[in-house]
Amino acid sequence: MITFKAEEILKIAEKIERDGAAFYGKAAQLAGRNRPALEALAEAEQEHEKTFAGMRRQLPAAATVFDDASGEAQLYLAAVAEGKVFDLTAGPADQISGREPLTDILHKAIGLEKDSIVFYLTMREMVPGQTGRDSIEAIIREELGHVVSLTKQLDELVEATARGQGESADG
User: Residue ranges of the chain with pLDDT lower than 70?
Assistant: First the structure.
């Protein structure tokens, strides 16, 4: 069984949040009236990155992530570390050209949020309470809120499109 250092997992979490902030920042530049909401999401991701960096700085030198009973979380984290779940070398912002409709950007954003939630749920199960479990739970709640917010934006855009207002990056 592989045992991960909490520091390694927090570094992955920081990268996920950096990538999310870059994605939302680029999407905001392309989004017209949805710009403030996407900028707010970028700022939230930056705050999450700071939270994880702070947690990492507070870890004891030998902190490890403890084995879960079934070993499934360890297998998941191994797949993450090997790039089988997240491509940690490619940033999601690079996947936005500016030519795709805003609905596609919002679908991509929702998918990224869901992926991060799964990762953080796994982290939560493996990180002992005294090393930041409460912070991870707070971030999970915020990420769930992001899914709700993005879904509302997507629904509004789809409704506007159905009413004949068309779809553009200005959404």
Answer: 1-4, 61-62, 64-69, 81-89, 128-132, 165-171
Give the C-alpha separation, 117 to 144, whole Å.
7
Say how far apart CA 67 and CA 143 lie, in whole Å: 25
Q: Say if residue 72 is exposed, middle or buried (CB neighbours under 10 Å; 0-12, 13-18, 19+).
A: exposed
Tokens of 2: 């592989």
CA–CA separation, 36 and 24 (whole Å): 10
Contact 21, 51 (CB under 8 A): no
- pTM for this prediction: 0.76
Q: Let me know: does 74 contact 67? Beta carbons within 8 Å.
A: yes
Q: State phi, psi for 167 to the nearest 5 degrees.
A: -130, 135
First to last CA, the chain: 48
Give me the domains of the chain, ranges plus CATH numbers: 6-139+153-163 (1.20.1260.10)
CB 166 within 8 A of CB 143: no
| Closest to 20 measured CA to CA, from 100, 112, 96 | 112
